From TrEMBL:
Statement: the UniProt record of this protein carries the keyword DNA-binding: yes
Sigma-54 factor interaction domain: residues covered: 29-258
Claim: Transcription regulation is one of the keywords in the record: yes
Entries under Pfam families matching the protein: AAA_lid_14, HTH_8, Sigma54_activat
InterPro entries per the UniProt record, alphabetical: AAA+_ATPase, AAA_lid_NorR, HTH_Fis, Sigma_54_int, Sigma_54_int_dom_ATP-bd_2, Sigma_54_int_dom_CS
Organism lineage string: Bacteria, Bacillati, Bacillota, Tissierellia, Tissierellales
Parts of the chain that traverse the membrane: none
Identification of the protein by name: Sigma-54 dependent transcriptional regulator
Length: 342
């Protein structure tokens, strides 16, 4: 190694899981879904290789969770998993975040800083949202991945590093290659093993356990006790499609627990957007019949939704307006405009 590493001096990223037991306590990995079970077995299988892994899946499916799981199942588990969200930085900032810099390397570099490559030494580097990196950053990353060497910004001394790379994306990188925003050579380099993390709607077998898991977690975190959940809430939680996946489920439950009163989770606390989604449960996978103007589409959707809300409150306009957070006068105008039934 060209420059000595001293693990003790490396500022460790705060990690929310210490070991595999802790991982099982904090995340629901005991799955009843054959699809997700296969995903987890695949993660375990590849954990002990040193291959670069690309996790592909919609936002909120648990790609970061899967990355930590792979790390903790690997021989690198006693070292760190260092995560970087590539979309959170501009090109220059991402570079200094990854490579680190020497004192005086640029204006504002008052003292030297270690980058994530160094921090991930002997551990795992997790690059989230890799599809958001620029072509130039991809070239620089490719070089480090191939040579396992890098220099801090402002230094000519190469450092040798040993890390396992896991990247994640919710983008279609193959399409990005076609439109020249993602390098093909970089794609092949980072995706020796590609693992698809299934969306929640494809693993509904886990929904009940997940709901209970997050309820319990949220009650502890928010110091609440839930004694009753209105049936409409349960109906919603079990039938909703969760386009935001596990994150949306978790946030929804948090919200319901926080807004609960006297231990009761009420249907009134379901966000209004959820009510729209309930009306059109497969809104994300809908096949539309024909192309119409956006104005006409909005009008159709709005009128159906308002009719549904009016039905829910037995035609009580004042109550419907209150729940819709608009004035009764505005609602009356809409009722007349769309010819709605009270
Ligand atoms: N199996 C699981 N058990 C418990 N919580 C989970 C599980 N999977 C995901 N979560 C929770 O769901 C949220 C989203 O997970 P994560 O950040 O891993 O998703 P992601 O696919 O990386 O999202 P993004 O694409 O937006 O970065 C987190 O709060 C995470 O703790």
């Amino acid at each position: 190694m060209n420059q000595a590493f001293n693990k003790k001096n490396i500022a460790i990223e705060p990690m929310d899981v210490k070991d595999i037991d802790d991982m099982h306590k904090k995340f629901l990995l005991n799955t009843k879904s054959p699809v997700f079970a296969e995903t987890l077995r695949y993660c375990e299988k590849v954990a002990n290789s040193n291959s670069n892994v690309l996790l592909i899946g919609e936002s909120g499916t648990g790609k970061e969770v899967a990355a930590k799981y792979i790390h903790l199942c690997s021989q690198r588990a006693s070292n760190d998993v260092v995560a970087v969200n590539c979309s959170a930085f501009t090109e220059t900032l991402l570079e200094s975040e990854l490579f680190g810099y020497e004192q005086g390397a640029f204006t504002g570099a008052l003292k030297a800083k270690k980058g994530k490559f160094e921090l991930a030494h002997e551990g795992t580097l997790f690059l989230d949202e890799i599809g958001d990196t620029s072509l130039l950053t991809q070239v620089k990353l490719l070089r480090v991945i191939e040579t396992k060497k890098f220099e801090r910004i402002g230094s000519n001394t190469p450092m040798l590093i040993d890390f396992r790379l896991i990247c994640a994306t919710n983008k279609d990188l193959e399409e990005n290659i076609l439109n020249a925003t993602f390098r093909e050579d970089f794609f092949y380099r980072i995706s020796t093993i590609a693992i698809r993390i299934p969306p929640l709607r494809e693993r509904k077998e886990d929904l009940m356990d997940m709901i209970n898991f997050f309820l319990e977690q949220s009650c502890i975190e928010n110091r609440r006790e839930i004694t009753y959940i209105e049936p409409e809430v349960n109906e919603f939680l079990y039938n909703y499609d969760y386009p935001g996946n596990v994150r949306e489920l978790k946030n929804t439950i948090d919200r319901l627990v926080i807004l609960s009163e006297d231990g009761v989770i009420k249907k009134d606390n379901l966000p209004i957007l959820h009510s729209i989604a309930r009306m059109k449960p497969s809104s994300t996978s809908n096949t539309f019949q024909s192309i119409i103007s956006l104005k006409e589409f909005r009008k159709n959707t709005e009128s159906k939704y308002l009719q549904w809300v009016l039905n829910q409150v037995n035609g009580n306009v004042a109550e419907a307006a209150r729940r819709l957070d608009i004035s009764s006068r505005q609602l009356f105008n809409k009722i007349n405009e769309y010819g709605l039934q009270k």
